[in-house]
Each structure stands twice: as C-alpha cells, then as structure tokens.
Recover the amino acids of this structure.
C-alpha cells in the first residue's frame, strides 16, 4: 500500500485529519517524569496511547530526540514502533543532501527508524529527492511553505511574478514520478495553502503550526481540503496536545486536546463535530 | 576564539586549505573492517590519525552515522572527539527548521556532538538560523550553491535578474550579525564560487565536490580565495581520501591522497607545492 493510501485510510478510519506531533519538550514533561531517555519514551508512549483514537498520523520531530544524545535515537526508534500499525508515522527531519548522502538519510529514516514518511528540503534540487522517492511505498513531504514569521525571507522571493514556494510546489508535482511526494504547508498562511492546493490537487499536505504557533485550524483545514473538499491532508500540532497538562492527568488532558483539535479541523471541512 | 579565527589559524598552521570528509561508506571500509559501529570508529580514527598533518578541518557527514542506527551517534560523537583540538570540525548535517526545533538541532550539533561548525539550510528564512548563530563561538555554514548536477533546479531560479543562490549569499551577509556565518559552495561550479566570493569577501567558504564528484580543486581554490587571494576557505573531499586504498596500506594511501590534494589546492593559489 502506498503512503497516500495508508494516510487516506487512517483519516477515514478515525474520521480525523489530526496529526499528533511527538516533540518531547523538556519543559513539558509532566510531574514525575525526568528529562532522561527512559522517561521521555514513557511519556511519548503514554501520549500515543492517549490520543490513538483521534490521530490519523503521528509526527515525531527528530531534533528533540537527537538533542538527547545517542540514546535519543533509541527512544525515537521505540516511539515510532509504539504507534499503531494502521497509523502512518511522518518523521519530521527536513533532510536535504545529495547522492550517497541522501541515500543514507533515506535509509536511516525508512529502514533504521521505520518511518512511513519523512519531511525533506528540496533546495538541492530534484536529484537530491530521488533516493527518498525511490522508496515507493513511503511518503516524501517537501518543505514548501513554512509556518514561521521569517518564512517569506526566501520562500516569497519572486520568480517570474510568483513566489518561490509556489514554483517549488509546481516543480514537485512534476518531479512526483512515483506518486509519493507531498508538501509541508504551514497553517499560519491559509491563503498560501489554498494556492498550493490548486497547483497540487492530488498531493498529501502536512499542515503544521496550529496551537502554540497561532495557526487557525479551521481555516487551514478548509484550504488544505481544497475546492472539492477531498484533498488529502493532516493538520499537525505538538505542544497543544503533549503539553495539555503538566499534572498526573496529562493523558486525559492530551486526549481531550486531541479530540477538540480533531473536531475543530472537521468543522473547517463543514462536517460539524459539535 | 571564533570559528573564523580557529579556521584561519588551522589553515596557516598546516599550510593547508584541505578539509577531510569523514563519511564512512560501507563499500570503502578496508580489508579487516566490518560495517559495525566499533570498526567504523576504528576506521575513522585511523583516517584522522593518518591525515592530521595535512587537514585544516574535518567534516563528518551525519547521514553516514545516522544510517548505522543509535550506536552510530556514539561513533559520531567519538569521531569528533578524536580530531586534534586545534583543528575545527564541521558537522555536515544541513539542518533547517524553526523555533524550538532549530534550537534543539543547534544543541545536538554543538553541545551534544561538540562540533565547531554545522552546515544548515536557509530555505526557512533568517529566524530559522538564529538559534544556530546564537552560539557565537561556533560556525554556521549555509548551503548556498551545491555540487550536484541538479543544483540549479532551485538555486538557479531567477530573482530580479540573478540566480537565487546569489541572492541568498547576499542575504546571509546581511544576516551575519555575529560574524559566524559562512557558505557552502560546490567545487563543480567555480564560476559561481567566484561570484559568491565577490558578494561575501569575509565569509568562510566550505567547498565540497572535488575528487569523486569531479570538481577541479585548483580552480575551486582560486575562486574561493578571491581576487585578493586571502579569502578564508577549505576544499573538502571524502571518498578520494578515505577510499584511497582498500588494503592494509589504507592509512598510507589516505595520507598520500590528502597531501596531494592539499598541494593541488595550494597550486590553485599560486603558492606551488610541487
């Protein structure tokens, strides 16, 4: 099964377009958890367990595990393995390199860590993506339009009268020879998501930046679903779910936050989940 | 001491602009070495030992260590620690993310792994670089013009009549508030290196792509040194040094290859090392 098919099935099975980010932020560890690898894994696993019925995908962010040192990579591997088999895991790593190096990054993400998809950076050109898309059953999500305030410094540079991010989106559509490319499009710019969706109607969109970053989940979801309303996408949030409560009730709080966010996203699609 | 100062001193001390890439490619392990973490570390350490007198810097590439699994990160940490203290280590990781995530990548590179500099991708804009450049004693080398055949797909897109990579170089000069930014400029496009050098006379340039990738070391060095001849730069090669011999003489062969490449680079500067 392809990544697209798996993601579409997971969205349908959970009636959800929510992707739960698995970014163990030191300051958000609940009471009774220490910032050591064992406790971080225990925390991440508890979050997966608490949110599984609401999550169409999970997105561990490599940086938070790398920062724990070598043991952090074991935690990342174990966290990915703890996700239910029918729920795709998107490794947020934003890798981008050439040739043999790109091949090693793809091997690390897909074979060593077992991710179903990985985020990548396409600044190095089409050939830098090839070692990733060669894994035809995995997804490769190209960073296109990011959610940060400085996103436009490079992404809005004008190419033939249109912003770079839109040119890149169109290039990705052309480069997508195996049907496993997708795009990362920040929730803080819903108008840009809509423009990208028009150019790339078939591509899955990963939409980060709701919650702590201020993106409006409903507006982002409506834009990502597109005119026809059936565009494949997930909206991702990390801190608002993982940090929902610092107390012993953190699992309940995370589940409540995940349910509420799933419902807000669905409201953006006009499906109503009051 | 800043990264620039440390790099300039190392270049002067060795009379060298050679950066030895530490990319343990499975197929290049010499006889008697297995592709397991212990042997990879033994191999990388032997290469450092053999080439130390010719190397102004070392550049381990994160991908090759990540591909070894969690133990690979211990190998990377140990490899960095094995480099002589007066020789800067550039972690080639091409990281690029925002906010807390970028901060965690910077922590991983500088504090956990102990790198003196790291390569990054600036597609996400100036604010994505800030957590890296906040480490004022470390170097941050922005991928500007890469050495691969598809480099131009994105990097040559025209912005106001000039290629994107040149606009990015100029932006980096402006963003360099602490004097610790540098640029990655592939050896396979020496004319582009020259244009970048004109825009950024003070910045250290990391020039990969000689040897296996076909870049001409002399032409690249001349372009990176610039008109005045005193531009700060290192030319990097991995496979031609680490894979110089598959036999028991691999250390001698690596030393010979490093010496020869150092001399070719210096010839490009008109210093002659016949």
């Amino acid at each position: 099964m392809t990544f697209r098919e798996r993601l579409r099935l997971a969205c349908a099975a959970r009636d959800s377009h929510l992707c739960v980010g698995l970014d163990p932020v030191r300051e958000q560890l609940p009471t009774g958890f220490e910032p050591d690898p064992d406790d971080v894994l225990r925390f991440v696993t508890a979050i997966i367990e608490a949110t599984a019925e609401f999550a169409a995908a999970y997105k561990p962010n490599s940086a938070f595990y790398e920062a724990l040192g070598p043991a952090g990579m074991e935690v990342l591997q174990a966290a990915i393995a703890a996700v239910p088999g029918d729920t795709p895991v998107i490794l947020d790593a934003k890798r981008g390199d050439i040739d043999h190096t790109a091949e090693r990054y793809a091997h690390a993400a897909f074979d060593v860590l077992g991710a179903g998809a990985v985020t990548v950076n396409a600044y190095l050109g089409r050939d830098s993506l090839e070692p990733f898309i060669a894994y035809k059953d995995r997804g490769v999500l190209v960073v296109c339009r990011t959610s940060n305030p400085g996103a436009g410094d490079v992404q809005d540079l004008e190419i033939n009268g249109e912003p770079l991010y839109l040119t890149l989106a169109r290039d990705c559509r052309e480069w997508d020879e195996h049907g496993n490319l997708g795009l990362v499009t920040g929730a803080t710019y819903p108008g840009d998501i809509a423009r990208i969706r028009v150019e790339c109607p078939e591509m899955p969109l990963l939409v980060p930046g709701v919650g702590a970053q201020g993106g409006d989940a409903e507006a982002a979801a409506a834009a990502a679903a597109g005119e026809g309303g059936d565009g494949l996408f997930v909206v991702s949030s990390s801190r608002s779910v993982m940090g929902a409560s610092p107390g012993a009730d953190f699992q309940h709080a995370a589940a409540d936050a995940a349910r509420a966010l799933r419902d807000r996203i669905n409201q953006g699609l006009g499906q109503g989940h009051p």
